[in-house]
Fold this sequence. Notes:
Shape: elongated
Low-confidence stretches: none
Largest sheet: 4 strands, antiparallel
Helix content: 55-70%
Strand order of the largest sheet: 4-5-3-6
Order of helices and strands: HHHHEEHHEHEEHE
Strand content: 15-25%
Number of helices: 8
Structural class: alpha+beta
Amino acid sequence: MTDIINEICSTEVTVLNSLFKILLSLLLGTLIGLERRQHGQTAGMRTFALISMGATLAMIISYYIPQEFNLGKAGDPGRVAAQVISGIGFLGAGAIIHMKGDVRGLTTAAGIWITACVGLAVGCGMFLIASVATILIIVVLLLVSKLEYFFFRGTQAKIVRVKVHSIITDLDPYREAFRKNNVDITSEYLRYDYDSSITIINYIVRSVYGADFVKVFADIHSLGDVASITLSNEVNN
């Protein structure tokens, strides 16, 4: 057993320690991806597991090449790690969705980046550090959101989209519907479709927690020609 542990912890690349590293990175990446999947993110367990394993495999290869070809100091394992860190940014960028006034997926993108770092740590043999980092990542993802809610529970950010079957030139009645229900408009985006005679108004609003948006919608609908009103959270994680 001691020989197995020593081989696993050895800096020399062997079949045993490589398999252990890959399996450990699979486990750690899956744990992080599980939390993201529970929050309804597209990048879930499979994505994070593959990212973690890929970074670990890249680190193993970076150690293996100088060892196998006797490069000595000429071989720099840091080169492969640097490419992983920079290259993972493209995958992270793909997880970010930008809409008018709203950015979604930033936390998932950050999770992708740090999961790659965890995989590199496993590949370097930093098993304890990688495991602790994974625990801390999950703590941040699960608990910090609750702390944010505790400290900022007085307001909620929402996106309201109003579609009207006419060209609206006076927006004051719509703004008044929000104001009289204690909902503050922080941003307003307007789009006209003159061919179809349609106006689409996107509002980013902040309100006291528990505000009655049904009443807001009823007031807006009473203005006439309103085809649809949608409400969504300002999701950035």
